[in-house]
Amino acid sequence: MSTLLIAIIAISALAAVFGVILGFASIKFKVKSNPIVEQIDSLLPQTQCGQCGYPGCRPYAQAIANGDNINKCPPGGQATIEKLADLMGVDVEESAHDEDKGIKTVAYIHEADCIGCTKCIQACPVDAIVGGTKSMHTVIKAECTGCDLCVAPCPTDCIEMIPIEMTPESWKWQLNQIPIVTLPSDAPQHKMES
């Protein structure tokens, strides 16, 4: 019975010592993050597509905070550029990517030509392509961001970027582009008569 009690006391003592060491290390070696990077990262679309030249949205946010251009994110589009310009206090820039303004596209796999190599699945940053090895693949249209990173790796050229048909379900207001006008407090007020 005494060996069991000694073992419990030894393990408890070790746990307490390591806890104190870890607590001290977390305070002493704390990495302070830049709050502007957090704000920039929250404005980016989080597709992690790499089209900006960085491996994901967080590294691009860090680069913007360090002075890189704010116009390198195709999935974010002009709306994200405007939000970033407002946050950073810089002029709004046009997108650095050639894109048809206002036309959103999604990937489409011509399933008859698909050989099931899975190279498109590996290239997709948002897991919008489903299928198995040596099986037909397809794109989940609602998940596709239109980054077209899946097109180049396809050995059979069976992936095509097609425009999304504008329907009442897919159409969205560009609310950030509608100016909101506030009247001065001394402006005449119109009252409804009953």
Anisotropy-based shape: flat
Structural class: mainly alpha
Portion in helices: 25-40%
> From the alpha-carbon coordinates, what is the Rg to the nearest angstrom?
26 Å
- The number of helices is 5
> What assembly state would you assign to the polypeptide chains in this entry?
single chain
Indicate the proportion of strand residues: 5-15%
Query: In order across it, which strands form the biggest sheet?
Result: 1-4
How is the biggest beta sheet arranged? 2 strands, antiparallel
Key phrases:
two-stranded antiparallel ribbon, 7% strand, 194 residues, 4 strands, mainly alpha, 5 helices, flat
Brief rundown of the structure:
With 194 residues, the protein is mainly alpha-helical.
What would you note in describing this structure?
The mean pLDDT is 83. The protein contains 5 helices and 4 strands, in the order ααααβαβββ. The protein has a two-stranded antiparallel ribbon. It has a two-stranded antiparallel ribbon with strand order 2-3. It is flat and about 75 Å long. The chain is mainly alpha-helical and 194 residues long. The termini are far apart. β2 (129-130) and β3 (138-139) form a beta hairpin. The longest helix has 27 residues, at 2-28. The chain has helices at 2-28, 35-43, 57-65, 77-88, 119-123, and strands at residues 105-109, 129-130, 138-139, 159-163. α2 packs across α3.
